[in-house]
Amino acid sequence: MVFDFLRRSGPRDVASAVPEVKASATGRVVAHMSGGRVAWSPRDTVSLTRQAFAGNPVGFRAVKLIAESAAALPLVLQDQTARYAEHPILKLVTAPNPGQGRAELFEALYGQLLLSGDGYVEAVAGEQGLPYELHVLRSDRMSVVPGPDGWPVAYVYEVAGRKHRFNVTGPVSPVLHVKTFHPQDDHYGLSPLQAAAQAVDVHNSASRWSKGLLDNAARPSGAIVWKGADGQGHLTTEQYDRLTAEMEAHHQGARNAGRPMLLEGGLDWKPMGFSPSDMEFQKTKEAAAREIAVAFGVPPMLLGIQGEATYANYAEAHRAFYRQTVLPLASKVAQQVGRWLSDFVGEDVELRPDLDQVPALAAERDAVWNRVASADFLTVAEKRAALGLPALDADADLGGD
After folding, report:
1. What does residue 138 show for φ and ψ, rounded to 5 degrees?
2. Tens digits of per-residue pLDDT, 359-370?
3. N or C: which end of the chain has fewer CB within 10 A?
4. b/e per residue, 340-355, with b = 16+ CB within 10 A?
5. 56: pLDDT strictly greater than 60
6. Cα distance between residue 80 and residue 381, in whole Å
7. CA torsion sign, 311 to 315 to 320 to 326?
8. Could you tell me how far CA 151 lies from the centroid of its own chain?
9. Does the structure show a pLDDT above 70 at 269?
10. Long-range contacts: 315-319, Cβ < 8 Å, 24+?
11. Share of the chain above pLDDT 70, in %
12. CA distance 75 to 330
């Protein structure tokens, strides 16, 4: 469905406003390479997601842990003078569409950002002011169309050969594009899955090897040696075929694990022990799992990876996970969503995670509050600014506690 995103009015009439024309000095150089054409993503997001998320337990858990933790963070909306308990932007973010709440919407957005390096949010246009609904779009279906100056002029969403073009040349874009840093791409972000792709292949190969070992009775392979009555060492074709059929039918597979082998006619079983490379296979798998966790910024201890003792305890690892991974991601996304939505209503407001309600940072936050509260040389306004709180009215600042 095509929506007219440009016919809006509100506190600031964005439809009639003439945006100031600005251009980067390097924009025309970028446009020379891709101006007016779809800038195709240099990766196969679908295959990478299938192998590293749907087909790998470490990648799956890392993405889910980050996305769910970041989406569960409470959000606050404030400007330079006040923190809002009720606001149209808060209402829209809390109930973005009939099928999702705030946590579900942001979990989908964080998930797309982690899997592909790009996240897209569509605004369903309202009659005026804020949009009616917000929807997260699949990143693998979206393409960027750069303009003459190198900046996007449209986004193309394609499903089963059908395309919808979002024009973003108006005062407010109907699509928000959040992307991670990519040093070699001007239009798309870099996914952690790309950095961990080789580790994912190693981990998946190790899992298939373990599955193959399990299918063969979970024991090392061996050799059946036949010695004929006259010292002959060769089986006839009929004998070989019968022996192979007996082995496949009665001694291979998980259901035949531990079943005794009955040998006759000079046959002897010679078991083979694990080779040194076989013994190192499990360590290789664990090392690959740690590399996947590192690529996503998740302490391996939180994923249940054995042998990881970087942090003294689980609480320390949990705190580092929030401080180094969850909060930077959530702050970046919330800031961009808040700035985008504030353009619809014409207000300068900021959407940010409420750090005071993060249990993992409770001890750290208490130490900051006590240190700031005991600083007698700071005024009330300076203390509030140090804690990230909006300033009070001028007559309420008495210059002390």
Report:
1. -70, 130
2. 877 777 777 778
3. N
4. bbbebbebebbbbbeb
5. yes
6. 12
7. positive
8. 25
9. no
10. 318/360, 319/360, 319/361, 319/363, 319/364
11. 72
12. 10
What are the distances in angstroms from CA 96 to CA 3, 88, 92, 123, 300?
Answer: 17, 11, 5, 10, 34
- 3 state DSSP class of 21: coil
Give me 23's structure tokens.
Answer: 């251009």
Beta strands in 115-273 (DSSP E): 118-124, 133-137, 142-146, 152-159, 162-167, 175-179, 222-226, 267-271
Q: 3-state class of 178 per DSSP?
A: strand
| Pairwise pLDDT comparison (376 vs 333), residue with the higher score | 333
Q: Are 102 and 75 in contact (CB under 8 A)?
A: yes
Q: Is residue 243 within 8 Å of 204, Cβ to Cβ? A: no
Question: What are the C-alpha distances in Å from 146 to residues 156, 159, 182, 298, 351?
Answer: 11, 21, 17, 34, 28
Nearest to 247 by CA among 223, 265, 226, 214: 223
pLDDT-based confidence at residue 401 (cuts at 50, 70, 90): very low
State the amino acid at position 52 in one-letter form.
Answer: A
Phi-psi region of 129 (alpha: psi -120 to 50; beta: other; left: phi over 0): left
Mean pLDDT of 61-76: 95
* Structure-model confidence comparison of residues 218 and 56, the more confident one: 56
Reading the block at residue 169, the tokens are 């040349």
Is the pLDDT at 41 greater than 50? The verdict is no
Tell me the DSSP string of 241-304.
Answer: HHHHHHHHHHSSSGGGTT------TTEEEEE-PPPHHHHTHHHHHHHHHHHHHHHHT--GGGGT
Residue 64 and residue 59: Cα distance in Å, rounded? Answer: 9
The residue that leads in pLDDT, 265 or 305, is 305
Q: What's the confidence (pLDDT) of residue 66?
A: 97
- What is the percentage of the chain residues whose pLDDT exceeds 90? 40
The pair of structure tokens assigned to 252 is: 């291979």
Task: Report pLDDT digits (tens) over 153-208.
Answer: 999 999 999 999 999 998 899 999 999 999 999 999 999 999 998 899 888 888 88
**Cα 201 to Cα 195: distance, rounded to the nearest angstrom:** 12
CA 325/CA 316 separation, integer angstroms: 14
Length of the chain: 401
- Cβ–Cβ under 8 Å, residues 176 and 123: yes
The mean pLDDT of 109-126, rounded to a whole number, is 94
